Amino acid sequence: MGLLLLLLLLGPALIIAALLTWAALRVWWHNTSVQRGDRRREAAKHDSRGRPLPPMDEGLCSGCGRVLPSVYHLPHGRRLCPDCYKPQRGE
After folding, report:
1. In angstroms, rounded to a whole number, what is the distance separating the alpha carbons of residues 87 and 13?
2. pTM of this prediction?
């Protein structure tokens, strides 16, 4: 009788504790994933030396003449694809 009473009292408490732990782990995992994505996006805005890259959009490369989904828009009006932009940056 005592064991049954103990199970009736502790069972729901253990289930609630397990659910709270599961929810906390999911929140932690989501926050970690968001932070990882933010770091990845921020790193994509800088070159290998840490210098900021110009804005990117689709367009026609002034260097090779190809139409690409990602072309750097330089301040002086030229548009260069990543392949043509690297030699200009000295990489």
Report:
1. 64
2. 0.58
What is the domain partition of the chain in residue ranges?
Answer: 1-44, 49-91
pLDDT tens profile 40-85: 998 888 877 888 888 888 989 888 888 989 899 888 888 988 888 8
Quote the CA–CA distance of 48 and 18 in Å, as a whole number. 45
Task: Please tell me the total number of residues recorded for the chain in this structure.
Answer: 91
Give dist(CA 27, CA 85) in Å, integer: 40
CA dist 31 and 24 (Å) reads 11
User: Do the beta carbons of residue 27 and residue 21 sit within 8 Å?
Assistant: no
Residues paired with 36 in a beta bridge: none
Q: Point out which residues pair with 59 in neighbouring strands.
A: 68
The bridge status of strand 79-80 relative to strand 67-73 is antiparallel
Tokens (6 digits) for 87:
């030699």
